Structure prediction request, 521 residues.
Amino acid sequence: MFSRVLIANRGEIAARVSRTCRRLGIESHAVYSVADADALHVREADGATHIGASPVAESYINVEAVIDAAVAAGCDAVHPGYGLLSENAHFAQACEQRGITFIGPAPEHMDLMGNKDQARRTMRGLGLPVIPGSDGAVSDEEAEAAAAAVGYPLLIKASFGGGGIGMASVRRPQQFARSLRRARSSASRAFGSGDVYLERLLVEPHHIELQVFGDGEGGVFILGDRECSVQRRHQKVIEEAPAPAPGFTAELRERLYAQVRDAVSQLRYRNAGTIECLLDASGEIFFLEMNTRLQVEHPVTEMVSGQDLVEWQLRIAAGEPLSELPPPAPPDGHAIESRIYAEDPETLLPSPGSVDLLEVPDEEWLRLDTGVAGGDDVPHYYDPLMAKLIVHGASRAQALQRLQQALAGTRIEGIKHNVPFLQRVIQTPEFQQGDYTVALTDRLLAS
Amino acid sequence: MRPVAEEVKSPMAGTIFELLVEQGDEVDEGDELIILESMKMEIPVEAPSAGSVSEVRVAQGDQVQEGDVLVTLG
Prediction:
């Protein structure tokens, strides 16, 4: 096992990785920018290195600065968390070249899945159903014909995209040319490539995903599923495990698990990954994309599996075989996570500032993963995620009742936050019944 | 009589991502003046009323605080 791990991240995830390191007797080493000099993730780590100015380009995603910090601090591995450098194959390669283990998949799998269009075609070749769409990126010349072949409504998606950037939904052919121009320019600004492809737009689908672990030699564990259909701006807000969608029947679940296990095994994928899927109203399920890292919402899987996913990542990266890990078992009860963002609860626009107080009820069924405590800043340079509140119950009904209780008892002062919005979401009849789609928050905001 | 200058203030702390107008430009109510970047989001700042841009007080890349004056409209 490793002796000292550099955590190339910030906020709640960096603090959370530190905790597992400490439990396993591994020293954790943080990195920080100017704005984060006094941040909680720095206080939680055993050591820390200042790596640059506040904008992420000058600190957290500066490959050389992060690796230099790891070498100088004597770290033998790097945990990338999520976001930032976590899906950057060049960073993973550079770590290995400097003799530091990258805790994650092989760089070629990160590259393959980073190109969303290539990922879609690869997984189709490995037997997973994919949403009908254009075969490959479309040029301006062939775009109109490709769009007509896919049919309306359709989605224009950036090949190298993520987080909803460079994505446009088009309902009518007359809107297509304008949307294509806009998607291309926003994709090239954000990802350095204006490549886009087309996909049929599924109306009001459920977002369902599978947690996988591979050993790099074809061995695969599937550690259950999650539903993440509560989203705003294509970012998740509330997630639960197991997925409650009634359309995700036992039969469909069994078939999807078998298909995913087979595809991920053929890929010879290593370490943690997530297979994201969309389930449409007709009961068909499609592969959407594969995330080659730990997900923000991994705690719901931990709560129903009793496993620590960061520990699994560390053990696999250290070369332990999957057979040393406990085999996946049926979920124990139900877990729901709600993300606490620094944002206006009405408009959902970001609202940076400083936190005077952040407190949640003290219950054995409640877990708080937080990046801030009272007295801390939430700088405007970074994502607005402050904390994640996760509850467990013997049943979904109990978990839901506990989430209501936990949110009602949450006290946050000094900064605007979305807890009132979370409370509105979970009180909708759709959420209460466990049958809601990605359209839920839009409907709520329009009302 | 000259209308009173209207100050357009930053709705939140952030970085000036893009300036869409310059001094002397005529704008309509609701036109986007500036794109502010805050917490990984691009947030357009719109003209609260029609007028001409009498002053642009910020440059691309500037850090601003909530309430800072970005542009004045005459």
Q: What stands out?
A: The first strand of chain B starts at residue 6 and ends at 9. The mean pLDDT of chain B is 91. Chain B is about 0% helix and 50% strand.
